[in-house]
Amino acid sequence: MTLLGRTRTAVSIARSAADAIRRADTPRLPRLKRNVADLQTATDRAVEELIRRQLSTAFPGEAIIGEETVGPSEHDWTTPAWLVDPIDGTTNYFRGLPAYAVNLAFWDGTRVALGVIADVPRRRIYAAERGRGAWRGRRRLRVASTSSLERACLSTGFPPDMSDPERNNLEPFVRVVPLVRSMRRLGCAGLDMAAVATGTTDGYWELSAGPWDWAAGAVLVEEAGGRVTARDGTPWHPADGEAVATNARIHEELLTCLRARATAG
């Protein structure tokens, strides 16, 4: 199947997953995964299974790495894989906050070749394919033209486990906040990165999440003219435990700030 065919199939699967979430019963008491802040609902599990079935039918034998099942440490990143987050922003979903998404991306063994983000409450589909741009419906996406950190609107996120000072993002957050025009926290990495791709925000960073949180957004931002890296400036890779996404113009300035935190002490 061509890459365009894969993208169209991924859009169809993400749309059906979003429909399933909207049809689901109101979430009840969720399961706890690693700690009391790391939630999983029955809908997370059911929707990931739905996506797995549809991907396996369309692409037999291809690896599928999902947030609720197989972890990234079990995959050889020199081989292709689909990365799936059935509900990015489970706490928002459980609490009734309208910021959660379905993330679906295809890693071809060397790069993220395509990504789809379905904004479930707002019924929006964002899609990107290498060399073909980033889109929301028929609207081609472009990052913002903001050229300095002091004029930027950024977003960030925090991990469920806040006990690790190297990964809880508190020190970088405190460092960055005085330097920017405004800060936001959506609680949904896919929508954070879609906001960068649409020019709604100028940048986003997070220091602890999974590749399923970032892969679709990474290709979306890059195809919209932005840049996505680790803190050291190397291109983002699914094995990285962090991501920095910007409109490219403020990227080095933000990296400098984040690296100062990383090397302090």
TrEMBL record:
Its EC number is 3.1.3.25. The keyword Magnesium applies. It catalyses: a myo-inositol phosphate + H2O = myo-inositol + phosphate. It holds the Pfam family Inositol_P. Mg(2+) binds at E67, D85, I87, D88, D213. Its cofactor is Mg(2+). One of its GO terms (biological process) is phosphatidylinositol phosphate biosynthetic process. One of its GO terms (molecular function) is metal ion binding. This is Inositol-1-monophosphatase. Transmembrane segments: none annotated. InterPro entries: IMPase, Inositol_monoP_metal-BS, Inositol_monophosphatase-like, Inositol_monophosphatase_CS. Belongs to the inositol monophosphatase superfamily. The lineage of its organism: Bacteria, Bacillati, Actinomycetota, Nitriliruptoria, Egibacterales. Keywords: Hydrolase, Magnesium, Metal-binding.
